[in-house]
Write a structure and sequence with these properties.
About 40% of the residues lie in helices and about 25% in strands. The chain is an alpha+beta fold. α9 packs antiparallel against α10.
């Protein structure tokens, strides 16, 4: 389930290799410049950007999946990851199993029943992340990385890439988790290496992290009013709350209004917190008047099935 993976190899870690004279022979050189007193040769290799100096080589901004199989609609399992790293090692004549990994993306494409924008509306806030709505997707960001949900076919068309036949004229939702900073802190290791990517324990751990991050996102359920469930004033009040929340655009939209009112000084922090808590508790009611969205049921299953298949 890996996609983009960035590699770094230092010359001090590889004996007997003259980086500047040997490595550029194995990729398409596009430029040369000086940086921090070093001569740097740059170029491309099957979608990857490469920069080489006497102190080392960086291979970045490319999809390991696309490098091995030609597109990133497909997904790499552990065996495929090892093959991709072996191919990179053979091509550049360097041991990429010993390289330091500076970025890892874990992703999966889902063929879904509804247009992708429908799913964005049912994904609420996520602990330790900032939720950012984008024109063609939904991002959750924190200093260490990103969670992304977006329309994969739209993204590929915008880049002029060919859509595989299986995905043509289908709703394709991509869920992606990007680890882009402080990987050793995230995974609690001295450093993440190329070989670790296909080790069973690390591979299972990173996919489990991908699944748990999805599960930590608050799910926004559709509200269906069932008057047969109304037994008295208490249920009537709850239905009134649900109707108001639904009228205002759902749980997330209602909470946004409260946050805005607090910023304007119309509500104190305590009042805003109490109202937000009341909205959340109302939408989480385990009663017949509140029905779980089939959108979330579908997406939950897609994520579970992806983990089951690729482990």
């Amino acid at each position: 389930m890996y996609d983009n993976v960035d590699f770094k190899i230092k010359s001090i870690d590889v004996a007997g290799v003259d980086f500047l004279s040997q490595i550029p022979l194995h990729f398409d050189v596009t430029g040369e410049h000086w940086f921090n007193g070093e001569n740097v040769v740059t170029g491309n290799l099957d979608g990857y950007k490469i920069s080489v100096s006497r102190s080392g080589v960086n291979v970045k901004d490319g999809s390991l999946c696309k490098y091995l199989v030609g597109d990133n609609f497909q997904t790499l399992n552990r065996k495929d990851v090892k093959l991709a790293i072996e191919k990179l090692s053979d091509t550049l004549q360097l041991p990429f199993d010993r390289a330091t990994i500076t970025r890892i993306d874990v992703a999966q494409n889902f063929i879904v029943n509804h247009p992708t924008a429908v799913y964005f509306n049912h994904l609420g806030n996520c602990l330790q992340y900032i939720r950012l709505e984008q024109p063609n997707g939904l991002y959750f960001t924190n200093p260490k990385g990103l969670l992304l949900f977006y329309d994969k076919t739209k993204e590929q068309r915008s880049k002029g890439h060919i859509i595989p036949e299986l995905y043509c004229d289908r709703n394709v939702l991509r869920y992606e988790m990007r680890h882009k900073a402080r990987l050793k802190d995230t995974f609690k290791v001295e450093r993440v290496t190329g070989a670790m990517l296909y080790e069973e324990a690390f591979y299972k751990g990173i996919i489990d992290r991908w699944q748990k991050s999805y599960e930590n996102i608050q799910k926004i359920n559709d509200v269906t009013i069932n008057f047969e469930a109304m037994k008295g004033k208490k249920e009537f009040d709850l239905i009134g709350r649900l109707c108001l929340i639904q009228q205002q655009g759902g749980e997330l939209a209602m909470i946004k209004q409260i946050v805005e009112a607090q910023k304007k000084g119309e509500l104190t922090r305590r009042q805003a917190d109490e109202l937000k808590a009341a909205i959340r508790s109302t939408c989480e009611l385990k009663m017949d008047i509140n029905k779980r969205s089939d959108v979330i049921v579908e997406l939950d299953k897609k994520v579970r099935d992806a983990v089951r298949f690729y482990l």
